[in-house]
Amino acid sequence: LVHIAHNTAQAVKPDEAERYFKLPEFIEQMAKKNLLGNKTDGGFYKRIDKKTFKVINPKTLEYVDQAPEKSDKLGLILFEKDPGKRIKAVVNSDDKYGKYAWKCFAGSSIYAAEMVGQICDTILEIDNGMKWGFNFDLGPFEAWDAVGLKESVARMKKEGFKVPKKIEEMLAKKKNSFYLTKAGKRYYYDFKKKDYKPIPENPNILILKDLKSQKKVVDTSPSASIIDLGDGVYCVEFHSIMNAIDENIMKMLNKGVDLAEEKGIGLVIGNQTNEIPGAFSAGANISMILEGAKAGQWDQIEKAVKYFQDTNLRLYYSKVPVVATPHGLTLGGGAEVSMSCNKMVCAMDLFMGLVEVGVGLIPGGGGNMLMLRHYQSFIPARAQMNNLQPLVVPLFEIIATARTSNSAAEAREMGFLRPWDKILFNRDHLIAEAKREVIAMHLAGFKPPQKQKIQVMGENLRGMVNANLYNLRQGNYATDYDCFIAKKLAWVLGGGNAPENALMEEEEILALERQAFVELCAEKKTQERLEHMLKTGRPLRN
């Protein structure tokens, strides 16, 4: 930080160096004393232990206890999902935090405007550079639009900020925003032309937000929307908190299949976010599961689980191709939705897994059956397997330990992805590529998959699992309740009371899954795990 400020100060005009790159004296002293952060004896903060941090006193450069600071207003603002609304609320807050945020925002916005024409030609390069380089949700000019250009400039002038002449000229021409949308096209303000220019379109990128502004939304609910991507392809977009699967999303998935079968050629399932890693879906809404379990609503839980299973079967056996675009966190129910589709177009940055064991459950949306089907898809149709152990035991271990992939390549190795699923490095390309895949599958004469029976290990799997669990328990690697859940999982994956190598219908395995899921919901220790996860965001080992 200090070296960057010094080097930049030498390369810019003296007044810019004084305004923007002159560091406070205490930071210069910190650098001289080698207080450079975590890899030295401390930085602005110093870790004492796992939970304790001290903060530097700028006057003495000694580390002192942090005085607890809270802002009720900021606490509420953090729940706002839209980054534009969030930053507007922060800088307009009248407490000391809002006033500080406003000064930072005003100074950085003015500096960004001054740099147009010096470090790049347009606001587009600056906005994209800041988003791509620093993982910002909004670039400085997008953020300025969100706060309100005209209103914020008036406040800047009132408080003595020097507003760049180009901004004054822009407002004098009644150009009150840096970006606008007209007739479905997005434009940006060009300071050279002194007017708006269309944003160049990339054929590999479809932006769902833009399609929404073009009135391409066919149906919507609080948790999901159906968007017309054009050419007969529709998209179901999740937009619940962390894109958690709930009843509204399931209804919209069914409506999406209905619409694509009646009026289109296929369906894409996806969403877009600037967050890293972001979430295709962080799983099912476990607060609803806990609420039902505490109320003893076993029939309602069983019906909800069956509805989710039936929805995922509907995706797989749809008359038209269905393509999912998993990226980032794709956990639990999110993984089950993705694996139920005919094809996946995945981002390389993919954290995929069936993690229900962490909250005292097993996969309930068909995940057990789907993984068995995925693993057995590697076996030639006419091959006879008399020993399923090399396939099913690793599969059991992945689910029982709630393992997640660290990349799409690893997700393929773990069996979440099939050989024909596609991996892309650029997450921005997922929706457009999925649309192309739908069209290609349609033109190739897509037919729904034929139902196939699934071979199971039967009691043989339970015997192997019980032997391993005994060793894990004796070594204190697993709790009694971990073992209890694992035995339920083995019962489902083994096919219940089915004999070894029996062929079972998908619905039979799904029925076992539902039964085990509801039984686990009734357990007090599962409810404790669900409650602990909701309160702390961490799994409970009880």
The whole-angstrom Rg is: 28 Å
Strands of the widest sheet, in order across it, are 7-8-9-10-12-14-16
CATH architecture of the largest domain: Alpha-Beta Complex
Q: In percent, how helical is the residue content?
A: 40-55%
- Total helix count? 23
CATH superfamily of the largest domain: 2-enoyl-CoA Hydratase, Chain A, domain 1
- So what's the CATH class of the largest domain? Alpha Beta
Specify the biggest β-sheet.
Answer: 7 strands, mixed
Total domain units? 3
- Overall body shape: globular
Q: Report how far the terminal alpha carbons are from each other.
A: 45 Å
Quaternary status: single chain
Task: Write down the overall mean pLDDT.
Answer: 92
Low-confidence blocks of residues: none
Extended strand count: 18
Q: Structural class of the secondary elements? A: alpha/beta
Task: Enter the CATH topology name of the largest domain.
Answer: 2-enoyl-CoA Hydratase, Chain A, domain 1
Query: How much of the sequence is in beta strands?
Result: 5-15%
